[in-house]
Structure formats: C-alpha cells, structure tokens
Design brief:
By secondary structure, this protein is an alpha+beta fold. It contains 13 helices and seven strands. The strands form two sheets. Strands 2-4-5-7-6 form a five-stranded mixed sheet. A two-stranded antiparallel sheet has the order 1-3.
Length: about 375
C-alpha cells in the first residue's frame, strides 16, 4: 500500500469503528446478527493494520505506536464479540475490554500524529537535499570548468612554441590534452544544461544570427578530434547566408553535441557531412555520419521523454546520453523539430529544424564550399 492511500485506509477504519460502536449502542435483538458481524469486521480491520504496521516497521518509527494501538483495538473488538455473544460478561471482562479499547484508541491516534510529523520531517529533509543539489551542480560545474579552461589556454601557448610544433611526439601529446579538455568541457556544459532544463531555469535569448559562419567555427573546434580518427568534415550548404532568429549559444551547443556524437560513432577514415537547407519557412540542419546507424527502438528512446530504461535497454542505448537529450530539449525550446533518419548505405542522419529570418537579401560573403576549403589546421 502506498503512503498516499493511508489517509483513505484510516478513514475507512475510523468509519467502521464508529459504525460498530453505534450498533453496539442501539443493538436490540433483531440487530444482534448485524452488530456481531460489524464488530468482527472492525476487529479484522484493526488486525490488518497491525500486520501492515509490522511491514512498515523498519521504515517508519511511528509504525511502532500504530502497531501496538491497532493490536489493542483488535483485541478489544474481539473481546467485545466474545463477551456479548458467547458468555455472560463479568465486570472484570468489561473493564479489560474497555481498557484495551481506550488505550488502543489513544495509541492509535498518537501513532497517526507521529506518522504525520515524521512525514513532515522527511519532506523537509528531502527539500534540503534538493536545495543542496541545486546549489552544488552549478558550483561544481564552474569549479571543474576553470582548470580545464586553463589547460586549453596552456596548450594553446605551447602549441605556438617551435620546440613543440616541430616535435611530432610533443605535438601529439598537446593535441591529446586539448581534445580531452574540450570533450570534458562539453560534457560539463551538458550536465549543467541538463540540470537547468530539469529545474526549468533555461531561458532563450534570441537574436539574429548567421548559421554558416557558426558551422565553420564549430568545425574548427573539432579539428583535432577528427584528425585523430582521420575523419573528414564536409559541408553541404547553399551559396549565400542562412539567417535565423535563435539563441546562438544554444544552437551552437546543439550542433556541437550532434557533431561530437557523429565523431564518436564514425569509423576511422569516415566522412561526416553538415547539411543546411532553407525549407518551409525554416532551416533544416542535418549531421550525417557513416557509423553503425541507430536501431528503431533506440531512436524512440532518444526522441521521447521516456522512463529510466532497464538494464537491457540501458546497454542497448549505451552512448546515446545526455548530449542528445540536451539537443532535443533545446530544439523544442525554439519551437523546432528533432528527428533521426537512416543514411544509406550506412550511418544515420540527426536532423533538426529552426525558424528562419533573413537578414540581408544580398549577402556578399563566401560560399559554404569556399569556407570548407579555407579551413586549415587552426591554432589551439
């Protein structure tokens, strides 16, 4: 029985007890059978509370008082039946019966009061734990991000030193450090954003933004991750600019998570394509990889806010975690749509749409193809 059903259960018992007492008071001969059955039923109910109290005894201190009170009430109820219907009651029997009922009722009421106070204490403790968690996660994220930022800055300085740039082994070490720091930064950002989404503290800060330069910048950020696996990032975008009215930081986080996911599952020497198209009054962006693809049940788990998966489901969805959850929620905050399509002959396409807002009808910027060619080894 759940805790939320306890007030209903107690209300039934009190009602039956009152009904039994009423029948005991007004019972003439024709009501004798009904009075007997009601009193027995009342005793059985108190006996069931006794066993229920025993079951919750390890978890609730108030159950001890409820247990004793319900046992005394059950004994008094059955004694009432025995005295009134089977033997001629003596004053000693009546005294013991009334004493059991009185003490039982007092202890039972005291047990309910203890239970209410204990429940209030547990709710207060739970609220304190939630407040502690609410203050801990942002502080922890900030404290973790600070040393990682310093690490990225140090590797950037060392990368410019000729001693390191000319030594291939040292350069590889620096690249590994840089990759690890950037990946950890992204993970920390996702943890923090996931907490903010859960607590309802995420607010959009929309502004006019150009999409294609943003894709270029994100591609450069993943240069060393793709270099390690010999992955090529291609961009398939129309000439000119695609402009949006969106939160630029959150759009960047969306693409970063999708690109990091594609790199993770792409084979060595594979290709990842960033596609952007203006469609139906919005912009559709696709991150296409050549990995193993995504099974239909995994797609459903990624796209839907489902209950926590079991061990088998968690093992099947291993790797599709917090980053894609952040993607889904951020796209929905923008009023867009996030979905997954297969990529033939192998791989997957992670797609999302956002509303479009043109800024300049005659852009004079480089095309997406020209930008793709201009991306060289960036400085850390």
């Amino acid at each position: 029985m759940g805790k939320k059903h306890l007030p209903i259960f107690l209300g039934m018992i009190v009602s039956l007890a009152a009904l039994g007492s009423f029948f005991s008071w007004v019972s003439p001969g024709w009501m004798e059978r009904m009075n007997r059955g009601t009193t027995v039923f009342e005793g059985l109910f108190f006996l069931s509370i006794f066993f229920w109290s025993l079951a919750i005894l390890p978890h609730w201190k108030s159950a001890k008082t409820l247990c004793l009170g319900s046992l005394l009430l059950a004994v008094g109820s059955f004694a009432d039946v025995y005295d009134n219907f089977f033997i001629e009651p003596r004053w000693e029997d009546v005294f013991i019966e009334n004493l059991s009922l009185t003490l039982g009722a007092g202890l039972f009421g005291l047990g309910i009061w203890f239970w209410v106070k204990e429940k209030e204490r547990l709710l207060e403790q739970l609220q304190k734990e939630r407040d502690f968690e609410a203050s801990l996660i942002p502080k922890l994220s900030h404290d973790l991000r600070a040393p990682l930022t310093n690490l990225v800055g140090i590797t950037s300085i060392l990368q410019e030193d000729p001693k390191f740039s000319e030594d291939s082994a040292r350069r590889d070490y620096l690249e590994a450090m840089w990759r690890g720091a950037k990946e950890m930064n992204l993970l920390i950002d996702n943890i923090l954003e996931s907490y903010r989404l859960k607590s309802g503290k995420v607010k959009l800060k929309p502004s006019a933004m150009a999409l294609i330069p943003l894709l270029d910048e994100i591609s450069k950020d993943f240069y060393y991750q793709t270099k390690k696996k010999e992955i090529t990032i291609l961009k398939d975008c129309p000439d000119g600019e695609l402009t949006l009215e969106a939160d630029q930081v959150k759009v960047m986080r969306i693409v970063q998570n999708l690109l990091a996911n594609a790199i993770r599952f792409s084979p060595k020497g594979g290709t990842i394509t960033l596609k952007a198209r203006a469609e139906n009054g919005g912009v559709t962006i696709r991150v296409v990889d050549q990995g193993p693809g995504v099974e239909p049940d995994q797609i459903a788990a990624i796209l839907q806010e489902a209950p926590s998966p079991g061990k088998k489901e968690a093992e099947e969805n291993k790797g599709y975690g917090i980053g894609l959850k952040v993607v889904r929620e951020f796209v929905q905050l923008h009023g867009g749509r996030f979905w997954i399509e297969p990529n033939f002959p192998k791989g997957a396409q992670f797609c999302f749409t956002l509303l479009q807002r043109p800024l300049d009808p005659n852009p004079k910027s480089k095309t997406c193809t020209e930008r793709s060619r201009s991306i060289q080894n960036p400085k850390l």
